[in-house]
2-isopropylmalate synthase
Amino acid sequence: MKKMKYRKYAAYPSVAITARSWPDKSITKAPIWCSVDLRDGNQALPVPMSVEEKVTMFQLLVSIGFKEIEVGFPSASATEFAFARRLIEERLIPDDVTIQVLTQAREHLIRKTFDAISGAKHAIVHLYNSTSTLQRDVVFRKNREEIKAIAVEGTALVRRLKDESGNAGIRFEYSPESFTGTELDYALDVCHAVMDTWGASADEKIILNLPSTVEMSQPNIYADRIEWFCRNIKARDAVLISVHAHNDRGTAVATAELAVMAGADRVEGALFGNGERCGNMDVVIMALNLFSQGVDPELDFSDLPRIREVYRRCTRMDIHPRNPYSGELVYTAFSGSHQDAISKGMKAQPLSPGGLWAVPYLPIDPQDVGCNYEAIVRINSQSGKGGVAYVLEKEYGIQIPKWMQPDFAEVVQAVADTTGVELSVEQIHDLFHAEYVKLRQPITLKKCQISWDDEEPRRQDEEDTTISCIVQTREKEFNFTAQGNGPLDAFVKGFVRESGVDFSVDEYAEHAIGRSAGALAIAYIKIGCTDGRVSFGAGIDSNISLASIKATVSALNRLP
Ligand SMILES: CC(=O)SCCNC(=O)CCNC(=O)[C@H](O)C(C)(C)COP(=O)(O)OP(=O)(O)OC[C@H]1O[C@@H](n2cnc3c(N)ncnc32)[C@H](O)[C@@H]1OP(=O)(O)O
Ligand SMILES: CC(C)C(=O)C(=O)O
């Protein structure tokens, strides 16, 4: 076997921290959310969004409830600049929403950024420079002090431009970019210098954003780093600790959640995890994780289908069908045992203690995020009787009794196995009709008249019902008149006598389909012959007695 070159990689160092407190914490309220869809999400797209698309996306983010939205990198391009101006000049920013703009710590870019936000009521200027060992060495070729100087000079310029603008609505965020590749003591040193330069105080807090620019470790190590940082930062009340997690190891959501437990106040993320490389922390997942624990996420994802549609249209990105909460298949069960449990859980749900959601395999109610129950159970060769019965009942009101479910499931399974594809509910309904209801061969009931003595009260054992039938088989046509304690009993007696097929009714069930005066009745039957053969049938008619007789003929027609 060829060996992978794992020795090319080194393990990420752990954090020297004792008595860590975060493992014992739980998240009981939503963090301050900041959307980075229009910046980090946008800069990672093969075709970045146009101004119009950014406006649409911005309005979507506002409607979801984001109060802080990073709208772009205005000094990067004419589109980015024009978008910021459009938001401000056309007054598209609600009063309770703060826009955020990103800039490198370079003078001409910072100045251009201030031009872009001129006139904004509330704005966060977000300054970053990479502090990681690797980038210090290979990108900037600068030592620790020189890199710190970039941050300090950039901060000083932002401070000066804010003061000159006289705009008290401008706030400041600093990111020691590539924090995950930066020594903790050095990141702290740079952040302290930035705080001093800004003059951070409890009255004018700055946001210190500690990004997992590249996700390099398990989430617990990141959480240790955040707890260490929160413990060691001076004037904790002068800063808001923010996190911005990328998903290189596939654990960005866990990273952000554990970081909040470790003390982070604020979380940056993007819808459906859009963003550089493997994406940003998926804010839909984190918010709905809170929601599923009974915590108000303070973001509204009650119409995920609309959010998905706008997102796809603006970004031209897809959402994986397995993406938690938002993927198209995440509320769908194909497999038999899941379907059975879901179907039983849905029936029991109204009785759940305290009205709490408790349906197996469905961590949240799909309706809470704007999805319907239609797709919960879908049928293919992995499905079982519970699922087949569930879709027929839900879509067509056909409540196949438990004792007959395996029989029909076998029919469905045979088709699913042969075709190898998923069966639609319409196909399953058609199969049910073809297999039971429409069967006319080898026996056809050509005529059937039912009469009974109109006596009150009727006695169960009294043979007061008379039936007259004309029956066609392959061999012959015959008629009979028989009596019984009801139409079905009379039919069975007459048919057995005339045909010589000796059977009895072992199981029987019936119900109405639909509620109006024109409702139909459906009957299900299981018959057993004296020679050991067993068969199931179903019949539909506006007359319940006829439905039961048709069901019997259906079962006779299906005798092996
Ligand atoms: C982790 C992140 O996502 S950070 C955000 C990244 N986003 C983007 O880069 C999208 C928008 N960026 C752009 O359009 C461009 O990079 C611009 C317009 C901002 C700048 O463009 P340019 O100056 O032409 O090119 P470029 O970004 O390659 O500049 C690199 C130079 O800036 C320096 N630099 C890079 N980042 C920073 C920073 N944060 N602060 C200060 N200097 C920086 C580099 O060291 C390099 O310096 P050198 O020329 O002396 O070698
Ligand atoms: C600018 C910073 C916050 C960033 O995008 C990152 O580190 O990923």
Observations:
- The chain has three domains: 29-315, 336-437, 444-557.
- The chain is about 40% helix and 20% strand.
- The mean pLDDT is 96.
